[in-house]
Amino acid sequence: QVQLVESGGGLVQPGGSLRLSCAASGFTFSSFSMSWYRQASGKERELVATVSRGGGGITNYADSEKGRFTISRDNAKNMVYLQMNSLKPEDTAVYYCKASVVYTAYWGQGTQVTVSS
User: Fold this and answer.
1) Interacting residues of 98 by C-beta distance below 8 A, sequence separation 6+
2) Across the chain, what does the average pLDDT equal?
3) Exposed, middle or buried: residue 87 (CB in 10 Å: 0-12, 13-18, 19+)?
4) How far apart are CA 105 and CA 98, in angstroms?
5) Who's near 54: CB < 8 A, 6+ residues apart?
6) Staple 108 to which of 4, 11, 20, 38, CB 3.0 to 4.6 Å?
């Protein structure tokens, strides 16, 4: 059974940091690219960051996250992470973990991140 379980969300003040985690199981984790998406209330889901399959040597970020967010993966633990620094109120959203390869994609249930003073 495929599972992606996100954790690490919460309430943080502007300028603060959070580290999101996604625990994967039920599939060959290292064979999948891993991504973080987010969806703010009333808006479409958008890509935040992607790390390539295998060793994860290639990462890509949405322009608004470059320099603030870092995606990483640990294939030994079947985990993917999103380190978020210098958080802004506009980063408030539900953050989702996604595993994908060719025509297959799995999604987690999401974790809420709220940036507010």
Assistant:
1) 4, 34, 35, 36, 37, 105, 106, 107, 108
2) 95
3) buried
4) 7
5) 30, 31, 75
6) 4
* 66 close to 73: Cβ distance less than 8 angstroms: no
**Cβ atoms of residues 19 and 84 within 8 Å:** yes
SS3 63: helix
| Rounded CA separation 38/96 (Å) | 6
Token digits of residue 32: 């999948």
CB atoms within 10 A of CB 20: 24
Amino acid in position 42: G
What distance lies between CA 44 and its chain's CA centroid?
Answer: 16
Q: Would the pLDDT of 1 be above 80?
A: yes
Calculate the CA 104 to chain-centre distance: 18
Average pLDDT, integer, range 37-66: 90
Asked if residues 77 and 50 have their Cβ atoms less than 8 Å apart, the reply is no
Cα gap 108→25, rounded to integer Å: 11
